[in-house]
Design goal:
The structure holds two protein chains of two kinds. Chain A is mainly α. Chain A is built from 14 helices and no strands. Chain B is flat, with a radius of gyration of 28 Å. Chain B is built from 15 helices and no strands. Classes of the chains: A mainly alpha, B mainly alpha. The interface between A and B is large, with 94 and 103 residues.
Amino acid sequence: MLDNKETKIIKVFIYIVCVILTVLSILPFWIMIVNATRSTTQIQQHAVSLMPSTYMMNNFKILTGKSFNPMVGFKNSLIVSTCATLCATYFSTLTAYAVVVYDWKLKNAFFSFVMAVMMIPAQVTMIGFYQMAYKLGLTNSLLMLILPSVAAPSMVFFMRQYMIPSLPLEIVQAARIDGAKEFYTFNIIALPIMKPAIATQAIFSFVSSWNNLFTPMVLLTKQEKYTMPIMVSLLKGDIYKTEYGAVYMGLTLTVLPLIIVYLFLAKYIVAGVALGSVKG
Amino acid sequence: MKNKNNINAKYSKFGYIFVIPFTIAFLFFMLYPIFYTAFIGFTGLKGLGNTISTPGMGLLKENLFKNFKDVISNGTFQQSMKNTVKMWVLNFIPQILLALLLTSWFTDKRSKVQGEGIFKVIFYLPNIITAATVAILFGAIFGYPMGPMNDLLQRFGFIDEPVHFFLSKNIAQGVVIFIQTWMWYGYTTVNIIAGVNGISPEIFESAEVDGASRTQTFFQITLPNIKTIMLFILVTSLIGGLNMFDIPKLLVTNSGPDNATKTTSVFIYDQAFAGSYLYNKAGAASMIMFLIIVILSAVLFYIMRDKDEAALKKMKKQQDKLRLAELKAQELLNGKGM
């Protein structure tokens, strides 16, 4: 009986903490979205309001009347993230397939190497990367943001971990007996089996590419090439200093696509986070 | 057996063929830039539009390590190093404690929390939002004179006059620390919960039968069993923390008072791309960071390595040695006998 009472008190305490954390997670975005609909004067009087106002279109006009161009940023980010995700998932699966299915002399050495370089962050290679891009005349090319994703060591590692239990080698052998070419076997048989792993990794690859600020900030100097995160950084500039409503509008425009996608895929994303560390 | 080997040999070339795209992209976009960055650290390369091949930009002849020495003795670099370490440590501790607390609540069957799934989804939400957006949003929230934070504090009577938050070194750093914790505790929680769910339920059941309390169960059964996950989180957080860029770069203009929020990544960026174009100094700083990251991760892996497993290996080795010695002794005896 006593134990029951204690459990109840603990439970109430747990819910209180969880609700506080929930408010903390949502409130900043709520303030942002509501303020995107309020005029600068309203915001100056009271910066926090839970009720939306009617100045949404007005804010949008002020926002796009200056250097911030959400459509350009959206288009570039979409191109980069989509292509980078396709490259990363396809070639990582192909690389993992080479390690799992075939026996070759340097296989183990290759895989150890992949594991060793998994943790190297982009920041420490950036000076050399920039100089290389500059010499090739590719500093303002989106290709330099897409092609590096062909080599994604941590994704190769994940794909291998997933492939070992889920791709029986007998299937590959059966395909060979039926006369299938190796590349064909990979595309038609292995890729569909890997679909769940590819979906998880694709989401994370897409989001991290979409959110990447450092590399585009170093490489891109022309405004028509800007991706969303650099576009957002323009809101920090002097021209928007007094346009509070427009700044919140710009921030909302960059966040909204992500929040919508997250609402639909949240279950898979959270499950994918867990999968990544348990297996990786 | 021979037949199988033949088949393997026949197909093994495809192993090499299929890793070609990865290898080329890796060599070109990662390995070469690393060596190139290191190399630039030993040259005099600076100025917009210059490359190594520009006259006078080659290897430093008199003092090869000049850039490295300059960077290490540079006051701003030392400051940014201190900031980075401080901000990482102060965000990691509350983050991991909060995550462990939430884990112990969400995984305890005795006080099953309803809506665990929804809470996890909400706690993870900040992690998926563009960090650049988050930084500017918090910059606006802590804005002066009329940001939401000033508004709230005034409405509830905590302050009379609006406060210019980012004029204070501690508040500027504190906000960066808060944002980092806020963005990452959900991710850490989800990971640790997954680790705990991977532990065999029988262990927990037998602990319950033996009458272990909640706290005992958590410290003596749960924690030791999630060592690998903890290592994973520690290493990834450490490397991410040492490269902190988006939030400190965009939260406060010019890194705040006394470079309060300048991290080493921001330092590298500022050296190379924000007007001074000192690629050589930035290259040297990058390599220093690279070495620190490599050493720290190696040390962490060594400390956190499975001690039981290591002990087992050692024992096995000793046993092998013993057996070998026995064999040798026997041989010797036999030899003598003969």
